[in-house]
Amino acid sequence: MPIALWNTQYDDAPHSPASTASSFDEDEDEVNLRVRPYWASYRGVLKLRGFRLDTVEDVKAFYSCSSNGPIPDYFLVKHSGDVNDALCPDAGLPDNLFRGTQVCDGAKVVIKAVHMNSREFAVIRFLSTPPLRHDPMNHCIPVLDLIEVDEDNLAFIVMEQWSSQLIDDDGPCCLALFLAALRQCIEHGVFMHKHRVAHLDISLRNLLTDYRGHYAYIDYELSRRFDGVDSLCIPSFRATEVPPECELLNGDCPDPFKADVWALAILILRACKLAGYCLAELVQLTRPMLNKNPCDRPSMDEVLRAFDKMVPTIGNLDRLPTFQ
Predict the structure, then answer these.
(1) How far is 221 from 34, CA to CA, in rounded Å?
(2) What is the total count of domains within the chain?
(3) pLDDT digits (tens, 9 = 90+) for 161-193
(4) What average pLDDT does the segment 1-17 reach?
(5) Phi/psi zone of residue 8: left (φ > 0), alpha (ψ -120 to 50 degrees), beta?
(6) Phi/psi at 303 (5° precision)
(7) What is the rounded distance in angstroms from the CA atom of residue 144 to the CA atom of residue 102?
(8) Which InterPro entries does the entry mention (predicted)?
């Protein structure tokens, strides 16, 4: 079944260019709040960088081509009137996301607005800049451009449009492809932690696919980079999958990296249920990852080594497919 990333109605009322709507704790600093841009104000800026926000005409043209079919994540087309050049937001996306097109080749994109000084923008810029962006262990969704609007303290992250419907209409993939997808999830965790980045919201809802064998994490709103930081503890931690130690510490997260390991175990188990592959080997793999004591959980690197050691024990799966 489709895994919807969001189901928030789009608000058509004009907003100031960088007004904010919090998705965090009330004490969170302002730059990390979710921004709600008035998208029409930035059509020109984006056009200069080669991107066009979806209009009524764009959406009509896309759906008129029978070979395209429906976009799995394009929930509701919402617009007023039939003015073809009017912007046409996807009502299934939150206000900080907008679908569009790369002008040079017609490729569909998703554009995310963030505060220019936010942790999310800093993390995405760090992971999407050479040489890190070319590392084969980096499974971030491809970022096509980072556009800064200095006068509004606003930035736009332009990404390839992938799907949150992890299982397409043809049904579940074969076991080898399923395990290859899980390996990408684990490998990206190793990559992030190697560079002292904790995702902090690993979950199925934050996983996308291009239907060509590639899977990518998205949504780095909660992510943090701990380079040269003495304390790892995060107060008032909130995420899709919250480890048990946070409940014991009144919401504080003492080790964000081990919180990622816990969340990844939950992702693996949920993915098994979704795909119908409830393998005893995968359940065994997740047990130490779900240890109540974060100190006793394996590192991401240890999880990857255990996974690679496990695969040959499954019949006819001594090697997994790879994708370029």
Answers:
(1) 8
(2) 2
(3) 999 888 766 655 789 999 999 999 999 999 999
(4) 30
(5) beta
(6) -65, -45
(7) 9
(8) Kinase-like_dom_sf (IPR011009), Prot_kinase_dom (IPR000719)
Considering only CA atoms, which of 241, 244, 223 is closest in space to residue 294?
244
Last residue of some domain: 128, 160, 192? 160
Tell me the Ramachandran region of residue 180: left when phi exceeds 0, alpha when psi lies from -120 to 50, beta otherwise.
alpha
pLDDT of 228 = 77
Domain annotation covers residue 3: no
Residue 116, domain extent:
19-160
Domain co-membership, 224 together with 104: no
Chain CA centroid to CA 264, Å: 14
Non-local CB neighbours of 95 within 8 Å, separated by 6+ positions: 8, 10, 11, 15, 21, 34, 36, 37
Residue 137 makes CB contacts below 8 A (sequence gap 6+) with 187, 188, 190, 191, 194
Is 201 found in the same domain as 308? yes
Q: Which residue has the higher pLDDT, 64 or 207?
A: 207
Task: Say what the pLDDT of residue 65 is.
Answer: 63
pTM: 0.84
